[in-house]
Amino acid sequence: MGVITQQIEARFQMPLTDLRRAVAAAPQANMEATGVVRWYGLLAEALDVLETAEAALVAVLGTEPGELDDPAMELAHQVNTAVAVRDGRALVVTYLLDPKVPGKRDPRGPAPAVLRGPALSTAPATVPGARAVPVRGGGWRDEREGEIQQPGRASGEGVRAT
């Protein structure tokens, strides 16, 4: 928690207690700070739940040597779940603090990729009309008749294409 607290204080240039008070006084003033403070609070709650679950598991493990019974296994699962929740909330806080992650909006405006438009053409494809298309061997294919024409031969004298 200490590292995340330091990151929050460095990002917003104020102690965490002052940031919490500022968000409580005006939550709409800075939505980014409001989100970070909210998720930091959820992270602190998850850490408390984890510490409680670990203490209960240690108490059970200290009294019963040998194989774990069902209540001890249930406590172990609670610890695992609490660890997953804590880690997930810590990831959310670090995501909110990182301005370079994908999907974040830059206050200076949209990214250059947004201004360029789509990478692929979104216009409908044009339907080619009936025209002569060059083929290998120096001839061309007449799309209407399916014949390959050779230079110097009249239409109708070409080799039939299959």
Helices and strands in order:
Elements lengths: L1 H11 L3 H10 L5 H33 L6 H28 L14 H5 L15 E3 L5 E3 L4 E3 L9 E2 L2
Task: Walk me through the structure.
The structure is a single chain. With 162 residues, the protein is α+β, with helices and mostly antiparallel strands. It has two domains: 2-107; 128-162, no CATH class. The protein has five helices and four strands; from the N terminus they run H-H-H-H-H-E-E-E-E. The chain has a four-stranded antiparallel β-sheet with strand order 1-2-3-4, with no helix packed on it. Strand 1 and strand 2 form a beta hairpin. The chain is elongated and about 55 Å long. The model has no long low-confidence stretch (mean pLDDT 77). Residues 116-162 are annotated as: Disordered.
Task: Write a concise keyword list for the protein shown above.
162 residues, 5 helices, four-stranded antiparallel β-sheet, alpha+beta, 2 domains
| Approximate helicity band | 40-55%
Note the beta-strand portion: 5-15%
* Main sheet overview: 4 strands, antiparallel
The first-to-last residue Cα distance is 74 Å
- Radius of gyration, taken over Cα atoms and rounded to an integer in Å: 34 Å
Number of strands: 4
Overall number of structural domains: 2
| Helix segment tally | 5
As laid out across the biggest beta sheet, the strand order is 1-2-3-4
Structural class call reads alpha+beta
Principal-axes shape call: elongated
Helix-strand topology string: HHHHHEEEE
Nearest-integer average pLDDT? 77
Low-confidence stretches: none
